[in-house]
Each structure stands twice: as structure tokens, then as C-alpha cells.
Design a protein that fits this description.
By secondary structure, this protein is an alpha+beta fold. The chain has 1 helix and 10 strands. β9 and β10 form a beta hairpin.
Length: about 200
């Protein structure tokens, strides 16, 4: 009876085991590097459209800003910061940051004319008549439009409508300026939206 040599089996098994271990280590390292093990929240992925007009507010003569949700994930405005910046013709840099109001502020005061912008547009509903439309109280979904009226700043109509201006020194806008508009997810710290918007006359 002829004996078969099996000397090559042990080295082959050893090489295969080393390959398997190498692949497992590579997968673990890749997972950590890709953030799979961090558990970090992801910012909403959205498509938005923004317009800033010199004459688009409720009076017809005041400036306004609208942001339309074209598609993608919902945006919880409670967890969102709106930031704007622009450079005036005089070279001055104007920066504003808006987050949902907290505590005893306009957000919790059901008084006509007191509301927190940008508010959610609902046909037939005024911005101050339903506090569910105030910034921080609604979730923005595909098809929704939010708007800021008037001078886009604190003190509109003699009431506190925002904690800070949505666009600082908006009364100095004359048209054709470029305003950078950013939405930042406060949970992840990531930017949801970043767009340079030309002011429409």
C-alpha cells in the first residue's frame, strides 16, 4: 500500500488562519475609522431652497427670507441652529445665530405678534396665531416652507420675536448682496445646509 505524503497540509492551514485573522483585524480597524463604533448621530440629509427678498415681508415693503424643504430627511427645528453672515458695501461683517427660544420667552407666551422665527408657513394661519408654527416647535418635512418677516431682527412690531436677529442689520441690505445661510444640527454638530444666497430686489 502506497502512503500519501501530507507534509503540505499544515503550512496551507497555517497560511489560511493567518489570512482570516488579518481580514478580521482589518475589518475592526476599518469599522473604528469609519465611525461605526462611535455611535455618533448623523445630521439630516436634505435638499433646501432659500430666497431672501428686499420686499417680501407681511407689509409688502419689508425684507423676508424663505427656506423650502425640497426633499430628504425631516429637520427637527428644536435641534437646529440657523446662521447667517454677509459683508456690507462698507466692509462690515454681519453675523447672526438663531436657535429655538427657551424658558420664559416668546416661544412660551401665547400673545399675538410674539413668535419665534423662522416660522412654519401654514395656509390660512398667521405666524403668531399658532405656537406650533414657531421655530423650535415644529419638524420641517419635504414640501414645508419656513419664513422670516419684517426686518429679520429683534424688536419687530415692538415685540420680542426672536432671541437674536435672523439676519443681522438686514435693514442695511440694498439688493444683490450675498448672504451665507447655514443650518447646523446641534446633536451631531454637523452642517445640514450651507448656501450663498443673492438678495433679490
Amino acid at each position: 500500500m502506497i502512503k500519501q505524503k501530507e507534509d503540505a497540509v499544515s503550512p496551507v492551514v497555517g497560511v489560511m488562519l493567518m489570512l482570516v485573522v488579518t481580514i478580521i483585524i482589518a475589518a475592526v480597524v476599518s469599522g473604528f475609522a469609519g465611525g461605526l463604533a462611535s455611535g455618533k448621530e448623523k445630521a439630516p440629509q436634505v435638499s433646501l431652497e432659500t430666497h431672501i427678498r428686499l420686499k417680501g415681508g407681511m407689509s409688502g415693503a419689508d425684507p423676508s427670507m424663505t427656506i423650502k424643504h425640497l426633499g430628504g430627511d425631516p429637520i427637527n427645528t428644536r435641534n437646529t441652529k440657523v446662521m447667517t453672515s454677509w459683508v456690507g458695501r462698507d466692509g462690515d461683517y454681519h453675523v447672526a445665530s438663531t436657535v429655538a427660544a427657551t424658558g420664559e420667552s416668546s416661544l412660551n407666551t401665547d400673545v399675538s405678534g410674539k413668535y419665534h422665527e423662522p416660522y412654519l408657513i401654514i395656509p390660512g394661519t398667521g405666524p403668531g396665531s399658532d405656537n406650533s408654527t414657531w421655530f423650535g416647535n415644529y419638524i420641517m418635512r419635504a414640501g414645508d416652507v419656513i419664513k422670516v418677516d419684517g426686518n429679520l431682527a429683534t424688536g419687530q412690531y415692538g415685540n420680542t420675536v426672536t432671541d437674536k436677529p435672523v439676519i443681522r442689520d438686514a435693514g442695511n441690505l440694498t439688493g444683490n448682496e450675498i448672504v451665507n445661510v447655514r443650518l447646523i444640527d446641534l446633536i451631531s454638530g454637523s452642517t445640514i445646509y450651507d448656501k450663498n444666497v443673492v438678495v433679490e430686489v
